Structure formats: structure tokens, C-alpha cells
User: Fold this.
Amino acid sequence: QSVLTQPPSASGTPGQRVTVSCSGSSSNIGSNPVNWYQQLPGTAPRLLIYSSDQRPSGVPDRFSGSKSGTSASLAIFGLLSEDEADYYCAAWDDSLNGYVFGPGTKVTVL
Amino acid sequence: EVQLLESGGGLVQPGGSLRLSCGASGFAFSTYAMIWVRQAPGKGLEWVSLISRSGGGTWYADVAKGRFSVSRDNSNNTLHLRMDSLRAEDTAIYYCVKCRGSGSHSAYFFDYWGQGTLVTVSS
Assistant:
């Protein structure tokens, strides 16, 4: 049972916008930055968004992150077939004194 | 180019021990904290342990406390994870991950991941 909550799945057609939510509490998202990771099938995860809304170099600007209170969101604009992957949010939890990951959201391109 | 190469995984019996290693290259290893993250088959990501740049600070997930021990050898750019009293539920791919970020570890993010090494605990 993760302390961060994500929907198990999300989907959209090519070109659509898809949003993935991540809900936490005051001890994690409410007081620390949120990061997002993308895991393509059969590969290691890669950093997608850091510090809640920053994109590392090499990540397309179709990916956008935001945070408000104890929740965060990842938006994918102009969905492409190559975006089909699992997406995980993560943050430090002050109560647990460790990092926590959300359970992951599988994004499917219809 | 940053590279993280894990080794040491394999099949071990319940109650047994294993030592994972991670060779790092392409960056100043001693100036970055490192973590281990695992992923059970078909499951999500789970943070296991964090070690500070010097190795003087270590943190563990509850599932690892008392059984796992993280260490690093900055002179050889190597990260280790010693795992004792292994259980079936420890079966997973173990990833070596580089941290980045300023200030407290609560603001770290994980910018480079190894390909992982599979640990299977079974009789």
C-alpha cells in the first residue's frame, strides 16, 4: 500500500492530452518536491520531471509537471505511441524518513 | 557518458545472503549520493536505501532495516548493497541510481539508472 496514490491506468488517442495525478500528504508532496519517472516496457526507469515542474535536457516539452498542496500532476500533450509506458511519481516522506514512489500509472495510446 | 553497471544478482535460498555491486563511470562518483531501488516482477518501484556522498550517512526503507547494508568505495567508484536474511519477497530487479539535487536529500531526484540486476530468492 503506497502512501502516494496514482490511477492504475490512463489512455488517449494520438495527439490528445493525457493527465496523470499523484496524491499524497503533508509529509511528502505537501513539503517536498515531486519527481516523475517514465519506464518503457522492458527498460530501466528514466527521469522525466524533477522539482515538481522541471524538465531535464532531452525530455520533450510535451511533458509538463505541476504541484499544488498535497497533489501533483503530469501532463502529456500531443500524445505519441512512444509515450506508452508506466509513469511513477516520487517524493521524500518526512514521516517515513525515506523516499516513496507512487504505484505507477500505465499510459496506453489507443 | 554516465554509466552504472550492477552485478552480483542471482538465485539464493531463503535466509541466504548476497552482495550487489555497482560500478560507476562518467561522473565524479564521490560527489553524489546514491540509492538502490528495486522492482519485483510485474510490480512498481520501491526505494531500498540511500547513501550520502561520503558514505557517512545511510538511510533504509523499513523492509531493508536490519537486513540490508549499503556502502560505497569512492576510491574505486563502486556502490555496494549487502543483503542478509533474504526472503522470497525480496525477489526483484535491483537498480543502482545516481542522485542529484542541492541541499537536503529530501530534494534529491534520480537522474541516472543502471540496467538492474535480478535477485531471485527461492528454494
User: Anything to note?
Assistant: The radius of gyration of chain A is 13 Å. Chain A touches chain B at residues 2, 31-33, 35, 37, 39, 44-47, 50-51, 56, 86, 88, 90, 92, 94, 96-104 (CB under 8 Å). Chain A has no helices and nine strands. Chain A has a mean pLDDT of 97.
